[in-house]
Automatic annotation (TrEMBL):
Top-level taxon: Bacteria
Classification via InterPro entries: Rce1/LyrA-like_dom
Keyword Transmembrane in annotation: yes
Protein name, entry field: CAAX prenyl protease 2/Lysostaphin resistance protein A-like domain-containing protein
Domain CAAX prenyl protease 2/Lysostaphin resistance protein A-like: from-to ranges: 124-218
Keywords: Membrane, Transmembrane, Transmembrane helix
UniProt source species: Geothrix rubra
UniProt KW Transmembrane keyword: yes
Amino acid sequence: MPPVFLDDQHRVRNGWKVAGYVACTLALGFILSNAYGMVPRALRPAGAGPWIEFAIFLGAAWACLRLERAPLASIGYRLDGRWGRELALGTLGGFALMGVTALGVLALGGFHWTRTPNVGVGALAKGLLLYLGVAFAEETGFRGYAFQRLIQGVGVPAAQVLFALFFALAHWGNPGMSGATRIWATVNIALAALLLGLAYLRTGSLALPIGIHLGWNWTQGTLFGFGVSGNAEAGWWTPVFHGRPEWLTGGAFGLEASLPCVVVCGAAILLLARWRGSAPLAARA
């Protein structure tokens, strides 16, 4: 194999591994998306989209790891008791992040809540399943194989910044991404990516970032009734806005487009950066 593909140890360079993963993701996405499109609409389960995306990202990672003769556990899917505990801890953390943000906006007079009629426990469970799929899909795609190989290739700081930009750009097509809201939402989503990347680096597992992602989205949307990256839904509660600026409330895009969320997310990053973590990789962060 030409030297351009190999490093000094005669291993495939990490940049080519990332490129191979992207190509595999696109190919598998094309196949599964077309196969799913052939299923009659009446037979398509609600909320299946994120789980199909998860299958695409996980399948591409599995294929690349097979070539390296490495298991899925090596990218953070060692499904044991510790994994479950970190998933639960992350979910509570995501709940706390959104809870503190919402209470901050509430204290500043940005909105008040009313109880949403006809939204019961079933809706909470449905939202939990949906956002669990979103968390598994996006964390596997953005903090999984490609992110980890880029760390090995260019180091933690560069990989964190690049994937924070990728994560923010991936949300630019969402509803409500315009004007000043786009700026605040982009900053918050990039900060969230840094936070989720740190959660992986401190544990060497995808459980904690998946949990944070799940708790963040489910609390913001299904429980509190705000938009989730511009996607509206009926939550357990309904926020009634008081006409305050969107930089304070996040508006229809959700709390993650607000200044209070920048403060809360930034504080969480500083706290997580000070935590020594539980993985050898943490020493390189």
